[in-house]
Amino acid sequence: MTALSEAEPSSASILRRTTLAAAIGNTVENYDYAVYGFVAAVLGKNFFPHATPGAALLSTFAVFGAAFVVRPLGGLLLGPVADRLGRKPTLVVTLIGMAVVSTLIGLLPTAETIGIAAPILLVVLRMLQGLAAGGEYGTAIIYAAEFAPANRKGEMAGRVQMGSLAGLLIGAFVVVGLNLSLSPAAMQSWGWRVPFLLALPLGAIGLYLRSRLGETPEFVAARDHTRDAPPLDRRVWRGLLLIGVAATHAVGFYLAFTYVQNLIIQLHFSTVTATAVVGCALAVGIGLVVAGGRLSDRIGRHPALLIATAVILIASYPLMAGLTAASNPWLLAVCAVLLAAGPSFYSGVAPITYVELFPVHARGTGVALAFNVAVAIFGGFIIYVTQWLVQATGDNRAGAFVLMGSAVLSGLTALCLHSVLTPRTPRHGAPLAPEPA
Q1: What is 10-211+232-415's CATH superfamily?
Q2: Longest alpha-carbon distance in the chain
Q3: In this predicted model, what pLDDT tens digit does every residue of 326-352 receive, in sequence order?
Q4: What is the spatial distance between Cα 106 and Cα 202, in angstroms, rounded to a whole number?
Q5: What does pTM read for this prediction?
Q6: 222: which residues sit within 8 A by CB, 6+ positions away?
Q7: What residue segments make up the domains of the chain, in order of their start?
């Protein structure tokens, strides 16, 4: 047995452990976001009780977007920490912040108890959650990619994105379970608090996993060599490219997996049906995320991005039309799953693209800041904007045009990546570096 083959089990174990620990923070982050979206109608009644149902829902989505406004600030604060102190301490801080804030939302008094202070406190907590999330996603995908062998970096970064979908899926299961177990009155009274409170044990599990991590080999190597920051024009250009790539990632993710759930409810299906349908889309989407990352390792990042954006551009409108016209849950589920397929595949390719746009010593700041600017623009208020378009035009298919617009922008950006990113990696990458002490 060769030395390389003897090292492989250890390397595989390290790779599994690091990707799991990196992904679990995104699971907690998106679990929190999913729960908020899935119980948006209940939150609207508890925190905006005097508004009409439509206005209450818009207000709840506006609070949802508040977390995204401050995400660039979170990236600006925590990205440099990842570059100077390391990936691991940043991952620990962000996970604690998200789990604690979500728990506080679950304990928050409603407007019936404390009046106007209730929605104000909800906004404050959502913004604190956004600060923590601003350093989470970028650092997690960087961590996984920097530990992976050269021929699996896309796959491993994509697996962190799987954690994001898994968080939404867990949130969907929890909300469906509560709706099946509790009466509407109990769900309105106290049941909505339960999923937020469950973020604390999820965070504790993640904290345990992350406390056992070492630092990435690429970060350790870069830390030992002083390098000047890339020229400002290069950083700005690559940041703009990342924002363009992230447009479809953000729009597709929140539209397919959060907005669609509320759209189905507006089509007069039950909350349980709506959440179960989105759960099906998430389950299929997890597999497509892995497929996207793997394909990007084989053919390159920008060809994989172009394939995904072309599919989204062609398929979004007919699938949204089919979803809004569906007369039974089975047809509804098929349309929702197919509508989410393109964005899911795309979100498996995008993470490694972000990582490879910046050198190691500037990667934490570059990815965190640019990605969170993109999410603030294209993710935070996309649900609000789409809902507003539906109400303003009376056309419940308006979300398709939003998704198609993002695909055009990201597709044009992908055409610019050929001269920026390195060529595709060889089929057999370098062996994984040993775990640091």
Answers
A1: MFS general substrate transporter like domains (1.20.1250.20)
A2: 73
A3: 989 999 999 999 999 999 999 999 999
A4: 14
A5: 0.82
A6: 359, 360, 361
A7: 10-211+232-415
